[in-house]
Write a structure and sequence with these properties.
The protein is of the alpha+beta class. It contains 1 helix and 11 strands; from the N terminus they run αβββββββββββ.
């Protein structure tokens, strides 16, 4: 009988010790989760700080390596402003040599063989795909003969799945469209020629 009482006490003590250990493990686990959440919040704060630094310094991409940790941050940049550059030539352009919407002049021939005097070019500010219309079944933004002002959207250039509105940035009349809708364009490629007002 005495041996049975000792066994029961030992069993009770083992259960109590097990419960104490289990409770301490649960507390330790909760502490670790809380510490991990605090670390994650701290990491997010650092990332937000890096993003602010990128914006303040007009950086597009930053890669940081510290020991085993690596982080690469990239941000999209709004399309640059389209610049209009006048072309100076001794010859006068004529309407019959103008390129109509959707046509491209033959290679090596500028404007069908007639040099452009006093026309201003609207160039692509980025590499992408040129779109003359907002959608396939809608009217083009502009056509040959369209009057434009600095806020007139003349086309869209898609770059990395972002549609970038290209504005005329000047007042005048569209006299040539140099690319076709859906065509890939390069940075600085001439899209339109405009007779300024």
């Amino acid at each position: 009988m005495v041996g049975g009482g000792v066994a029961k006490r030992r069993n009770c003590l083992q259960k109590a010790a097990f419960m104490i250990i289990l409770t301490r493990l649960n507390r330790l686990s909760a502490y670790r989760k809380e510490a991990a959440m605090t670390q994650n919040d701290s990491d997010l704060a650092r990332i937000k700080e890096l993003i602010d630094i990128m914006k303040d310094n007009d950086l597009v991409e930053v890669q940081i390596e510290h020991g085993e940790d690596k982080i690469l941050l990239k941000r999209s940049v709004p399309g640059p402003v389209v610049t209009a550059v006048p072309i100076i030539s001794p010859h006068i352009s004529a309407m019959p040599g103008m390129v109509s919407a959707g046509q491209i002049p033959p290679a090596g021939v500028q404007g069908g063989g007639i040099l452009d005097e006093g026309l201003v070019e609207i160039k692509s500010p980025l590499v992408g795909t040129f779109y003359a219309r907002p959608s396939p079944d809608s009217e083009p933004y502009v056509e040959v003969g369209s009057q434009v002002n600095p806020q007139t959207v003349v086309c869209m250039v898609e770059a990395m799945k972002v549609m970038n509105e290209i504005k005329a940035e000047m007042s005048g009349t569209i006299v040539k469209i140099m690319v076709t809708s859906g065509q890939a364009v390069e940075y600085g490629q001439v899209l339109f020629k405009v007779k300024p007002e």
